[in-house]
Amino acid sequence: MVFGVTTIGQSPYLSSDQKRNVVGGAVLGGGYTKRIDNAFVSFGLQARMEGFGGLDYRETNFSPNIVRTVSVKQLYSIDIPLKFGYAFRKSEISFGVTPGIQLFVHGKEQIMQNQVVQREDSYTGKVEHSNSLSMEFGFQYYYNLSPKYSIGAKVNADILRPFHTDYYLGKSTTFPVNGQIVIRRTFSK
Fold first, then answer.
1. For the chain, how many helices (H) and strands (E)?
2. pLDDT digits (tens, 9 = 90+) for 158-170
3. Residue 69 pairs with which residues in a beta bridge?
4. CA-to-CA distance for 187 and 189, rounded, in angstroms?
């Protein structure tokens, strides 16, 4: 099965004004599903892009008067989703485990020395001083509009994000639970 997913949800990270931001995303992946009556298990590989607004991470560990800030616009990652579920009529409900690795971020970098901007440029690279592994657990519900299109909702919690440093995309919420509304397009079965 090859699929594409468009999502809109909330960030598990707090922005500098201590609010959660809206996150838009896109996923392209493929996998295998094994059905036994109405129950199913599926696994695969997916590439994910999440788009953020108003989300920064800041480093002050260079020297006392130098501050580096990266305003993150997109986060790119590779995931290995595993789902256990049950299908009934046109609906399906499942529990998912999604280990992954965050590859790189894209955004804008600013370096200030003595509160004066020294350099400002676009930035594509790794998040410094951060663990790039993720492990999401969550529940999903899909309603199949047709054999190819589904609409659904997901609630996920990344259990590794609380262990990341505060440098990582602003301070993480206490327990980073996020919800998403999902439109799924299946290209082949």
1. 0, 10
2. 776 655 544 344 4
3. 58, 110
4. 7
H or E element at residue 28: strand 20-36
Q: What span, in angstroms and rounded, lies between the C-alpha atoms of 124 and 175?
A: 28
pLDDT at 65: 85
Separation CA 115–CA 52 (nearest Å): 26
Distance CA 161, CA 178 (A): 12
What sign has the CA pseudo-torsion 153, 22, 156, 81? positive
CA 123 to chain centre: 19
In which residue are the tokens 């919420």 written?
Answer: 173
3-state helix, strand, coil in the chain (%, to 5): 0, 75, 20
pLDDT of residue 167: 39
Radius of gyration of the chain (CA): 19
pLDDT in tens, 121-178: 998 987 666 667 788 899 999 999 998 899 999 888 877 665 554 434 444 555 567 7
User: For the chain, which domains are there?
Assistant: 2-52+74-102+129-188 (2.40.160.20)
Side chain identity at residue 108, one-letter code: K
